[in-house]
Amino acid sequence: MNRVRLLVLNAALGPLDYSVPEGMRVQPGSVVIAPLGPRTVTGIVWETERLPGNDVPAEKLRPLRELVSVPPLRAPLRRLIEWTADYYCAALASVARMVLSSGGALGGPTTMTEYRLSGGTPERMTPQRRAAIEGLEGQQGTIRELAGIAGVSEGVLRGLVNQGVIEPVAVAIDRPFPPADPDYHQPALSGDQLAVANTLVTAVEERKFAPVLLDGVTGSGKTETYFEPVAEAIRLGRQVLVLLPEIALTENFLVRFEQRFGTPPVLWHSSLKSTERRRAWRAISEGSAQVIVGARSALFLPYANLGLIVVDEAHEVSFKQDDGVRYNARDVSVMRARFEDIPVVLASATPALESLHMAQTGTYQLLELPSRFGGAQLPEIKLVDLTEEKPASGRWLSAPIIHALEERLSRGEQSLLFLNRRGYAPLTLCRNCGHRFQCPNCSAWLVEHRLSARLACHHCGLETKVPDACPECGEGDCLVACGPGVERIADEVGELFPDARIAVATSDTLGNPERAAEFIAQAESKAIDVIVGTQLVTKGFHFPELTLVGVVDADLGLEGGDLRAAERTYQQVAQVAGRAGRGAKPGEVLIQTRHPDAPVIAALANGDRDAFYAAETEARRDAGAPPFGRWAAIILSSEDEKEAREAAIRLGDTRPQLDDLYILGPAPAPLALLRGRYRYRFLVNARRSASLQEVLRNWIDAHTFSPGVRVGVDIDPYSF
Ligand code: ADP
Ligand code: ZN
C-alpha cells in the first residue's frame, strides 16, 4: 500500500503520514482531506517516497479521505512554501494556509451572481439610467463589470437592481475571464523606454531567472514600459503577476491596463468577495487567468504557468506583512521568480537601499529611465525653513506655501499638501483637567477624526464617538486638539481660501476602490483644487494639472530611532514631489522643515539622490544594518503584563553567545501594548553569521512558554 507524508493545515502539528486508499491517485502537491482524530483536516501531499523516521507499518496508517479537485501545487510553489517558512521562521502550515486560503481550494458554492437587464423599465427615467439601460443591452456581468461597460456608477446600477430593472442570474464559478489582447493598443515608446522594454521582452522570451531593478524617475512611464514584457508573456500563453502596494492605486492601474490590453486584469486583494476569490483562485490554478494584479498575498497563489512578476513601487513599506507570517513581498517575489525560473522586475523611482545595492553589485540587472516621458521636467524643489518662516499661531502653513497656493488657485491649477497623519489632530486633551484620550488596548493616543466625529486608534481600529464632556472631570465642551492632521490642514486651507474645492485623501476617505475611483475622476476633471493627503497620495497618481506640492512637515518621519527613518523620509518626499508638474506645466515643490541642514533634507533640496544613497549606505555599513548585516526581532506578548515580562526575561537568560551576534533586550516593544497584548522585544543583529534563523530557532525552541504567551519572529523588521 502506498503511503504519503502530509503537510496538514494546522500550525501546531508537524507533517503526518497516511496511507493512500485503493483507486486514489495522488502526487506531490495534491490537495487532500484526511482524518485527524474525530475530525478531518486539509493537507497537501508533501512527500510520496522516502519517508524517514516513521516505522509504523502502512496498514496501521489511517487512509486519506478525499482528493480535492484542484490541480496539484507545482514544485516551484512547494519550494517557495518551504523557503518562506524557513527564512521567516514560520510554521510550514501557516505558509501553506496562505496558499490555500480564501476557500479557493476548499469547497464552497459553485455558483456566483451576475446581473443583466430584465426588460422592465424604471419608475423614473434619468439620463444616467437611460445610459445604463442602453449600454447594457445584451450584457451580463458583475455590478462592477457592468458599471465599467455602461460608464455609470455602481450606485446607479444598484438602484436599478432594487427596482427589478436589472436582475441577478446565478452562473458557474468557473466562468472564464475575458482574454487580454496583447496588441490592443500599443503606445509609441520613447527611445529610453523602448530600450528597457526590449531587454525585458527578451528576458521573458528566454524564460530564466532574471531579477531586474527598473529604476525610473517619477513620470518616466515605467508602467507603459513594463506593459511590453507583459504583452509578450500573454502572447506566449504565460501568466503574469503584477504586485501593487495599495488597493487605492489599483483603480488608476486598471484604467491604464484596459487601455493597453482591451480588458481588465484579474484582481486579487482582501476586499474581494469570497465567490470572486474562488473564481480567481481556480482560474489562476488552471492557467486561464492571464494577468493577475494583486496585493502581496497574490504572491502565494498557485499559478499554473507563471512567466513574469512585476513589483510596482517596489520600495513600498506596505509590501511588508507585519503579523502572521511576517514576510516582505518584495523579497519573496524574487525567490518565487527564482524557483519558477522567470524574470522579476522591481520598479521604483526611489528603490530600497537593499535593492539598489543588489543592482550596483551586479546581483540584479539595473535598467534606468532617467527622464520624464513627453519632455515633462522634474519639479523645482525649495526648502521653507520653519525657524524663519513661522506659521501664524495655531497654524501650520507658512507664508511661502500660502502664497504658492494662492497663485495656483488664481491660475486654476491643482495643489497637493502632504502630511502623513490621518485625522484632525494626533492628540486630544481636556482643557480643564489635562486628561488625554488614550486607547485602552494600545499604548497610543486616540486620534480625533472630525469628518466622522470619532476618536480612533490607528493601531487596533477602536473607534468611539467624540464625547460631549470629559470622561475624567465631566467638564463640557473642553476638548483641545494638539498638533495637525490632514483634516486640520484642510480646515486651514478652507479658512484661507473659502472658495477652494478641497479634498482629504487618506485611507479613511479613499479606503475602498469605488471611492478611490471617484476621487481620481474628480481630480482629473479638475473638480478639486487642493488635495490634502497622507502617504496614500505619494504613490502612482498622475494628475497633469497638479503643479504645486507642499510638504507640511518633512521632519515628521525623522523622529524616533528607526533604522530606515532617513530612507523612508527620502522616499516619501521624493515620491510626493514626483506628483508635481507631470503634464505640460512645470511643477514646484515646497518642503517645510525645521532642519534644512539634515543630510536627507539637503539631498532632497539638491535633487542629489546619489549622495543620499551613498551616505546612507555608509551609515548602514557602520551599523551592520542591511545589506551588510542582518536584523531580526523577537516579540513576546501576552494579555498579562507580568507573564510577558517574565517569559522575556527567561528567554533572555539563555541568549546565545556568539561572535558577530548582538542581542539587545528584552525591553518593552515600541508599542508596548498592542490590541490588548503587552509586548517585550529582543533585537538581534548578526554581522556576518549566515545562520541567523537557525540560531533563533534553536534558542526559542529550547523553551516552553505558557499558553498565554505568543512568540513572534520578525526577520528583516521594518520599523524598530
Ligand atoms: P511612472 O510610473 O514612471 O511615474 P507613469 O507610468 O505613471 O510614470 O507615466 C507617466 C505618464 O506618462 C502617464 O500618464 C503615462 O500614461 C504617460 N506615458 C508614459 N509613457 C508613455 C508612452 N510611451 N506613450 C504615451 N503616454 C505615455
Ligand atoms: Zn488601540
Q: Could you explain the architecture of this structure?
A:
This protein is an alpha/beta fold. The protein is 31% helix and 23% strand. The chain is built from 19 helices and 29 strands. It has a seven-stranded parallel sheet, with helices on both faces. Strands 15-25-24-16-23-22 form a six-stranded parallel sheet, sandwiched between helices. A five-stranded antiparallel sheet has the order 2-1-4-3-5. Strand 10, helix 9 (274-286) and strand 11 form a beta-alpha-beta unit. The structure holds adenosine-5'-diphosphate and zinc ion. Residues 203-369 form the Helicase ATP-binding domain. Component of the replication restart primosome. Its EC number is 5.6.2.4. It is an enzyme of class 5 (isomerase). Keywords: ATP-binding, DNA replication, DNA-binding, Helicase, Hydrolase, Isomerase, Metal-binding, Nucleotide-binding, Primosome, Zinc.
- Major sheet summary line: 7 strands, parallel
> Can you give the helix content as a percent range?
25-40%
Number of helices: 19
Beta fraction of the residues?
A: 15-25%
Please give the order of strands in the largest beta sheet.
Answer: 10-11-9-12-13-8-14
Bound molecules: adenosine-5'-diphosphate, zinc ion
Distance between the termini: 53 Å
- Radius of gyration equals 27 Å
Protein name: Replication restart protein PriA
Subunit structure: Component of the replication restart primosome.
EC number: 5.6.2.4
Binding site for Zn(2+) 1: 430, 433, 470, 473
